[in-house]
Amino acid sequence: DIEENFWSPRLGIKGKIDLTVETVGVKGERRVQPLEIKTGKPSYSSSHMGQVMLYCMMSGDRREQAKSGLLLYLRSSGMCEVPAGIHEQRGLVQLRNELVAWL
Q: What's the pLDDT score for residue 18?
């Protein structure tokens, strides 16, 4: 099992990152990013991308927070980079807070 278990008390969420990989950008900069693997039909849905963004945020509890993550669909071998911008992060935290309010 190569999944990385995460529990983020700061964010109040937990999850399992499929892989954490080191990538090299076009300018030679090295980055550590979460890689989420999906086995179903490629949808590039907001929920899949949101999951990757949350993993970027959670990774900041253990290392420098990733500015983007990777989403890989095995069925089509399609992969995309998912930026974890500050506005998207704020929206995800607000959504999480709305869900918690119902508990």
A: 95
